[in-house]
Specification:
Blueprint: H1 2-9, H2 14-26, H3 30-43, H4 48-63
Helix pairs in contact: 1-2, 2-3, 2-4, 3-4
């Protein structure tokens, strides 16, 4: 998986965590999505789309 390798090479890459979190969201793995999207937000608090997708993951989790 390319994203995993990107995170290994640069663990401060908010975009990589966002991309992986979004992939987890697409696979309906809300817990992992929330974890990665939260990490993206910690690394870049201005990453608005990460907040949006994390909210979607929380909503998805509530629906299950």
């Amino acid at each position: 998986m390319k994203i995993r390798k990107t995170i290994e090479l640069d663990p401060r890459d908010a975009r990589a965590y966002y991309n992986r979190g979004t992939a987890y969201l697409d696979k309906e793995d809300s817990d992992r999505a929330i974890q990665d999207l939260t990490k993206a937000i910690e690394l870049n608090p201005r990453f608005t789309q990460a907040y949006v997708n994390r909210s979607a993951a929380y909503l998805d989790k509530r629906g299950h």
